């Protein structure tokens, strides 16, 4: 299976321009699955929730979804992208799985980071995996990396690849991906942006270094810090079906959930 990502620097508020940059870049990709960063079309550092609503789109009537669907049909691949989603008076930091026939699945970020709590509603859709080609694929977004429960939940659903659109500002995630992939025996595609959103109310800088990580924590590719990169490589999703970390230990089969009650008590 050929998978990859497109790392770039979105321009804040320039939705049509960002969509054009992405679609032009991805026409050079020969792949089965491409991952884009978090919020890649609107930019990230919003002034307030009202500004989010002016830039967000409803997936039922979205020029961005239409453009990506046309691209997937042309190139015969799937795209996972971050998306600034609205419906009625609600708005979410979302990830979409899009194929040649349109929107396949939506994930709304469960764990909002810092000021995102002022801008977005918390995610309200259960996590799930979707079959893409021969692989079971799940979606998480950026700060979800801090919460191992989300990764394990998808692994227990059979996820072999987790697509991870990101706008990382802290320096921990890429190293943590090695642990997430070891403890679950999965592939992770972390597609990050770079550059900065410089706004009247301040500036946020992003770290780049998108990464593809394999089961047992092997970093298959690490991208540059501050430049565009379209990267595609071959992986074998079947490697994520092998959960035997030693001849006598299975990552999922050796779990003792009857002793994990504290994980779900509020």
General description of the model:
- The longest helix is centred in the first third of the chain and has 13 residues.
- Helix 1 runs parallel beside helix 3.
- The mean pLDDT is 97.
- The chain has a single domain, classed as 4-Layer Sandwich (Nitrilase/N-carbamoyl-D-aminoacid amidohydrolase), CATH 3.60.110.
- The termini are far apart.
- Strand 3 and strand 4 form a beta hairpin.
- The strands form four sheets. It has a six-stranded mixed beta sheet with strand order 5-4-3-2-1-14. Strands 6-7-8-9-12-13 form a six-stranded mixed beta sheet, with helices on one face.
- It is α/β, with parallel strands linked by helices.
- The protein is built from six helices and 16 strands.
Topology:
Elements: E1 2-7, H1 15-26, E2 33-35, H2 49-55, H3 63-75, E3 78-87, E4 90-99, E5 102-108, H4 116-119, E6 130-132, E7 135-139, H5 148-156, E8 161-165, H6 173-184, E9 187-191, E10 194-199, E11 202-207, E12 211-213, E13 219-222, E14 229-234, E15 244-246, E16 249-250
Helix pairs in contact: 1-3
